[in-house]
Design a protein that fits this description.
The complex is a heterodimer of chains A (114) and B (113). Chain A is mostly beta strands. Chain A has no helices and eleven strands. The model of chain A has no long low-confidence stretch (mean pLDDT 93). Chain B is 0% helix and 51% strand. The model of chain B has no long low-confidence stretch (mean pLDDT 93). The chains are: A mainly beta (114), B mainly beta (113).
């Protein structure tokens, strides 16, 4: 299984600002995903990030609000832009590839917007 | 579009007793099914998966799950619960390998001594 790290682990931000979350994997992976877990809720997919192409966003999520970069096969960033208290969530990245069917998740970034 | 239902928000079981966490799914074609566990302040950990083959799959920490195609279910089970099994459990489905996961709402498992 892949080892995934995320930075920061948590942050408290003021509304109207932006935060960039980093996801680093210890091996090259084909697909990376970004999920949001709102308080007391399940996980919802924000977008799929493939290296060398634009991210694919799910319904309800747009690039202007959640721009994503995927510069290489081991790294991705998710930016939460113009934050509001409703963006307070845990943001998780996950990876799949290398012949495995399952996804492996990073430890998450706990974001609180005040 | 695929969907997953976990009908119980919480399951309470005494330590040493068997446990079952229920999951039903809807997906076009053959499903790829997964169980994940989330401990407090930690990310999701993969427990087990069903892709094809034997309907009973075994995973980490003594957990197993039974795939039932006719009932579109994939219930998580363990013969003897431990207090340390207390956590949030998520069932997930994917229409094919390595693709996006759709998660159920989660079930909180509480194992009491």
């Amino acid at each position: 299984s892949a080892v995934i790290s995320q930075k920061p682990s948590r942050d408290i931000c003021q509304r109207g600002t932006s935060l960039t979350i980093q996801c680093q994997v210890d091996s090259q992976v084909t697909m990376m995903f970004w999920y949001r877990q709102q308080p007391g809720q399940s996980l919802t997919l924000i977008a799929t990030a493939n290296q060398g192409s634009e991210a694919t966003y799910e319904s309800g999520f747009v690039i202007d609000k959640f721009p994503i970069s995927r510069p290489n096969l081991t790294f991705s960033t998710l930016t939460v832009s113009n934050m509001s208290p409703e963006d307070s969530s845990i943001y998780l990245c996950s990876v799949s590839g290398g012949g495995s069917h399952e996804q492996y998740f990073g430890p998450g970034t706990r974001l609180t917007v005040t | 579009a695929q969907s997953v239902a976990q009908p119980e928000d919480q399951v309470n079981v005494a330590e040493g007793n068997p446990l079952t966490v229920k999951c039903t799914y809807s997906v076009s074609g053959n499903p790829y099914l997964f169980w994940y566990v989330q401990y407090p302040n930690r990310g999701l950990q993969f427990l087990l998966k069903y892709i094809t083959g034997d309907n009973l799959v075994k995973g980490s920490y003594g957990f197993e799950a039974e795939f039932n195609k006719s009932q579109t279910s994939f219930h998580l089970k363990k013969p003897s619960a431990l207090v340390s099994d207390s956590a949030l459990y998520f069932c997930a489905v994917s229409p094919n390998a390595g693709n996006m996961l759709t998660f159920g709402g989660g079930t909180r498992l509480m194992v009491k001594p």
